[in-house]
Prior knowledge:
Blueprint: H1 5-32, H2 40-47, H3 61-84, H4 90-107, H5 109-118, H6 128-142, H7 151-171, H8 177-191, H9 196-202
Amino acid sequence: MPSPAPSSNRFERRRAVTRRALIRAARQILAESGDTSASIQAIAERADVGFGSFYNHFDSKTELFEAAVVDALEEFGQNFDQHLTGIDDPAELVASGFRLSARMADSHPELMQVLRRRGLGHIHSDNGLARRALRDLQAGLEAGRFTPVDPAVALSALGGTLLSLAELRFARPDLDGDQAAIDLAEMVLRMLGVPPSEAHEVARRPLPDTAAQAAPSR
């Protein structure tokens, strides 16, 4: 007699698809306007799911939008993992992360808008970008690459600068985003204690193959 497991699995898959659709809709709203006052009905319609489905996954809109921010920042972090694999120097990882972020304003605008609008409250979270940045900062501190400082303080400086870069990319679309990211990366490395001449060189090292991140033609 066939096992009932496949039916259960189908149910769980349907639940996962519905949850994902709601999170996707919330991410779009955050990226477009940052306005979280949309009704649950409007969110459900955007997600193309039934109104009642919302409460099968979330207790409130606040919970949904928080899940959407976490989801976007985790995807952002996974992009870093994908494209910066193989870089062992913590200083180069920091610099490359800034430069990759600048390019993502064009290649992944939704992610960058969510970071811009809601990233401040997640600078010290234990997931997404923050977890990866803290890892790289701690590696740099342990290796003597960076000046000894409380990692949380260094993370505040790094996160604040990244949010400023995100704001700059959208406020000044005419600006050379790559050059701005290089300059900011150099400044951050110097702030972390990397000697000026070395910070200048590290911030300009060739990026790994980031063809998938290349800015679309306009």
